[in-house]
Amino acid sequence: MSQSHTIIVTGSAGLIGSETVKRFAQNGCRVVGIDNDMRSRFFGAEASTKKTRDELVASVRGYEHNDLDIRDAVAISELFKQQGKIAAVVHTAAQPSHDWAARDPQTDFTVNANGTLNLLEAARKFCPEAPFVFTSTNKVYGDTPNRLPLRELPLRWEIEQGHEYEPGISETMSIDYTKHSLFGASKAAADILVQEYGRYFGMPTACFRGGCLTGPAHAGTELHGFLSYLMICTVTGRPYRVFGYKGKQVRDNIHSYDLVEAFAAFIERPRAGEVYNIGGSRHSNCSMLEAINLCEEISGRRLTWKYEEDNRIGDHIWWISDVRKFQEHYPNWKFRYGQREILEEIYRAIS
What we know:
It is built from twelve helices and 14 strands. It is an alpha/beta fold.
């Protein structure tokens, strides 16, 4: 893609959005960003994306920032209308926390579901042939993964050997009959809408159901961005809380660079109404206890942490993504970052 191509990126000052902006701007694209820093409203001033926004505006050639709310259908439609030919839409804006969603379900749903609908309608009206990438979540599966047969190891839970999901959980897992959390429900609504615009209207859409998305640009807080926040606590001496499952809950972690490269592969060769589980897979994963050990090892400091028996509602005990479907469709896509490299980069970014 070149300077003549316009890419619209929502949540453009966030972790994945800012990585997307830089990736396509480096290719000479004109990037139109949408971000109104609702993250500071969700999680407080320390989670604000304003610094990243200012850096993008100052340093990224061909970047145009728009302080818009994706819930404003008229403003979103007008922005799309003004752009002329749009080559792709990458939608990363969201309310991303279980806990926050339960406190304000109306805001959570209108941002995650209605906001996505507004963007899909604008795309259908003004650029129906442009690939539409949606950053979904593994929380659309609710707590169904917690029914998997797991065995307890010294530092982690692990799935029984020989199980069909041993390589990772695939897109075959049902999203029905499960406790999603209100956040999971609002994201599932958006996920199904994105699929439907692909299948019903024939638009080139994809839902990327992410595991833990991370990287050095993450403004981690206790309620969201666990690896970033864990390293911040280790370095600064701030106390950390581990919630339930003996601290042995497993997450796969994908670097924002690797995820955005997956977006780029899809945009280059799009399909209609696709769904992909995407995360660190067997390549990059850790339990909470293993993550604490790695943070201490990399930083040379001890983390002050305490354990609380109650797990978070809808929290997964074991999640590893099966990325083989995406790799089959896009065989040139490869991981660049492993678990240790991710944490080393986060450490360098905050030290």
